[in-house]
Structure prediction request, 440 residues.
Amino acid sequence: MQQLPGENAPKNRILVKISIVAAIILVLLLPSYKVEQLVVEREARQKEAVDEVSNKWAGAQLLGGPMLVLPYVVNYTTPNGKPAQDRHYAYFLPTKLDMKAIAQPQERHRGIYKVMLYSAQVQMSGQFDIPDLSSLRITADQVLWGEAFVRLHLSDVGGLNDELSLNWNGTRKLVFAPNTSSDPYSSSSLAAPLPLQGPMELAPFSFSGNLQVNGSQQLLFAPLGKTTTVELQSTWPHPSYTGAGLPQQSTITGKGFSATWRSLAHRRNFPQQFRDGDRINSSIYDLSSSAFGVDLFVPVNAYQKTLRSVKYSLLCIVLTFTAFFLIEVVNKRSVHPFQYGLIGLALVLFYALLLSFSEYIGFNFAYALSALATFALIGWFVKGLLQSARLSTLLSAVLVLLYGYVFTILQLQDFALLLGSLGLFLTLAIVMYFSRKINW
Prediction:
């Protein structure tokens, strides 16, 4: 039987409609990308606000215990036959280091952004063994005894609230000031002079002292002791332990947290005593590499979750258009491509609403409110478009399931791949089932 010229018209219209809808989806990628860039920009603004407040208060703090430093000289002869001398430094770490810290959090605001600050009171005590110069191939005659000093690392010395001093061996009070020596470990540190008469004064040293320091976001401790014990308490209920080791003991309640770390020398990548010329992999020892501590952060970063949700925008647009297209074709209705574009813009604006609301009411409530507004708008539009409350309710139900599914993936990040794969498989099965009714 010969086909009439008009018999293929409905099929051609479907193919043309699919092509146009696909083109609309590609066009909608541009505003979706713009929203994604807006999220990144707002997150950068938040970081600027945090940095601005932190610079006026103090930055993240890394606290290391005291280190005994002995300057010494090495004599040599130049190629011209003239005697010369180089200055070097020998470092000796404490055998035992105990630190007890209490961090009082303070939540400040810069515009709409929250910044977590803290004031910490730290009790520090410990002891040194007798320095073993011979193991470093240094003689007593090389040491500049009168220039010996004690060094203490603090990443942001501007955070000190009071004079920092240590009771040294029960007989001396060491007062610290910014380190002005030229040794490679002098940055971000304080120093107190400890002039010695000679090797006869080398003996086991003990020390103790208190310091009050401001900081923001993070508080870390460097385990400089052969045995280092750190006890930290705070009223902040949302700690995130970070660094080279987790605490051996930790208690977190709604009223705060307490944590205890114990670190031994074999867990560090630097020795108990060394010289400024000693290297590991051609670099000086990184005394902060074994540091541990806590991040005092405001829970739930809305920008990160919003950014992750925007990355699902293409999936949501494609599945929504697919559902709308199937509803249109199966029920023999006709919808103009321009109206597909309006629905797509509503789906993109969902993410702009989500970003705006999340800055004020948190991500979860913002997601629910933005979704409710978007579903209501699309449902109202489709009801007037198709003149059917049933079809409008059906599409709204699809949107609820789709955005509820995405929200679940965002909450269960560890299972995102599994849930995503299962969800896409189920969606494909549903589309395959309903597409059987279409006369292609």
The chain has seven helices and 17 strands. Helices lie at 9-57, 302-310, 313-330, 337-361, 363-386, 389-411, 416-435.
